Amino acid sequence: EPKDKKNENKNEMVLGRYSCLTDVLTILKPNEERKHVDVLTSTCLGLLSSLWSNRHDTALAVIKTQSNFWKDVTFPLRDFLKIKKSKALYESVSHVLGILALESYYVKRDQFDSNLKSVLKELCDNGLTTTIGELLLSLRSESECLASILKSWRIFLTVMIKTKNDPCGLL
């Protein structure tokens, strides 16, 4: 909905009072006691991933303006080593990698979000490639999760290299 009725021409949008995205973003907010990723969190990340996959640009433009959005969305990657391993965590990691890849692909290099860039740099500086490597090795027996993460990881790496939106130093 428009931010305020007087400035409807500016196209500045905010989440509506009854928007399901408000609750989705609340679920993804950091929680000091979070020791695992539950199915609800994974499902919320799946919903966000589908917004990127289906190019719901208006919704994306609004949710990306929320404070700490990129930190909240990437928590399964940042806290992977601290979180109890589960299928929901693996699905979440796959969704997050997909979101990061699609965002990097769709956004022009000169319009790359500085918050996203700093989150990606932090992830890479803290060993994202090592974390994903360890994850892939640990999933050899769980082929469904392994296939999903491998696909997302491949897309993520391809986009980072092809688009040259590379805060990770892959080039």
What does this entry look like structurally?
The protein is mostly helical and 171 residues long. 61% of the residues lie in helices and 0% in strands. Helix 1 (20-28) crosses helix 2 (39-53), helix 2 (39-53) packs parallel to helix 6 and helix 6 (87-106) runs parallel beside helix 9 (143-163). It is globular, with a radius of gyration of 16 Å. 27% of the residues are buried.
What is the fold's blueprint, element by element?
Blueprint lengths: L19 H9 L10 H15 L3 H7 L5 H5 L1 H4 L8 H20 L7 H12 L2 H11 L4 H21 L8
Q: What class do helices, strands and sheet pairing give? A: mainly alpha
Portion of residues in beta strands equals under 5%
Query: What would the principal axes of the Cα set say about the shape?
Result: globular
Helix content: 55-70%
Strand count, sense and barrel status of the largest sheet are:
none
Q: How many DSSP-defined strands?
A: 0
User: On the 0-100 scale, what is the average pLDDT?
Assistant: 82
Describe what is shown at a glance.
The chain is built from nine helices and no strands. The protein has helices spanning 20-28, 39-53, 57-63, 69-73, 75-78, 87-106, 114-125, 128-138, 143-163.
Notable traits:
mainly alpha, single chain, 9 helices
